[in-house]
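Entry 14. Structure prediction run on the chain below.
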Amino acid sequence: MTTSAAGQPLIPQPPATVTALRQAIVQIAPAALPAFTRELDQAADHSRQASDLAPLQRFIAQWAVYVHIQRQPNLAKELRHWEDTAETGDATQARRAASAIGKILDDAHAALALPPR
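Output returned:
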């Protein structure tokens, strides 16, 4: 991931569309593109099978939050720190990490005006 000057986002937040999110991921987190494509295929399959757009809507919301976080290097670094702590820490550290991760995700949902997780 490239860094930004003065803690500014690497790119503007893209619209919550598959195409715009894919383009953003290519720019800021290209290693995530295979997961994006795999999860898009799964969401599309589930939507077709159920004749329901909810799986695609959840996919778009999830990846909009991912882009929101990853386009901000300091926030992405903080999230990775808490994820690592959750995996390697003791029970108390894991609870604290889970709380911090939840706050980061809740703040991202709020910033994007998405329904709470």
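The chain is about 70% helix and 0% strand.
Filed with the rest of this week's runs.
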